[in-house]
Amino acid sequence: GENVEQHPSTLSVQEGDSAVIKCTYSDSASNYFPWYKQELGKRPQLIIDIRSNVGEKKDQRIAVTLNKTAKHFSLHITETQPEDSAVYFCAASRGFGNEKLTFGTGTRLTIIP
Amino acid sequence: DTAVSQTPKYLVTQMGNDKSIKCEQNLGHDTMYWYKQDSKKFLKIMFSYNNKELIINETVPNRFSPKSPDKAHLNLHINSLELGDSAVYFCASSHGLQQYFGPGTRLTVT
After folding, report:
1. What average pLDDT does the segment A14-35 reach?
2. What is the tens place of the pLDDT at every residue in A84-113?
3. A38 contacts in B (CB within 8 Å)?
4. CB–CB of A105 and B41 under 8 A?
5. Are β-strands A102-103 and A107-112 bridged in parallel, bridged antiparallel, or unpaired?
6. Which residues of B33-69 are buried (b: 16+ CB within 10 A; e: fewer)?
7. What are the b/e assignments for A50-78, b being 16+ CB within 10 Å?
8. Yes or no, beta carbons of A89 and B96 under 8 Å apart
9. Do residue B41 and residue A38 have CB atoms under 8 angstroms apart?
């Protein structure tokens, strides 16, 4: 089955700087890659996703890049703010409706004011 | 914002008891899921239903039994609770690729 590895497990960034979280996946048939943000005690919330037919997608301060050949994808957060502090999860699936998501192990991002 | 809701939010019970968690979504989605998040925050799929039909059944002890009375509801019944069942259980729903999570049920088994 699919295996998703995520690095780093913790990341501290000065406010205003950029943060990058990286994931690799094992199943070459995976073609849907969402990112979730989970604040303390809250539900995971979908913040951005990408399908394998595009290499990059951007939404304001967050962007995701995908390298399908190397089987890795990354989340980039620019101009970080204190409210970006949370645990971020990457995930992968084969991209059909009803497909299960396989999650990475999470990155705890702390923004230092 | 009650798109995907779960009850109860907290559940504290003793080993050996049987308990249920309920989930409801008002998004009109066809597919619903149960995930387990352990103490290390790892999120793992347990079950998935599409239009009341079980389509994903991961390696989960058969003490866990999901039930979907209709496509807007998915319940999880757990028999003979064990200490290792302590976790946060999230329900999610989807129509297409994007999955939306409920607020979670924190289950503590003592």
Report:
1. 96
2. 999 999 999 997 766 789 999 999 999 999
3. 41
4. yes
5. unpaired
6. bbbbbeeebebbbbbbbbeeeeebeeeeeeebebebe
7. bebeeeeeeeeebbbbbeeeebbbbbbbe
8. no
9. yes
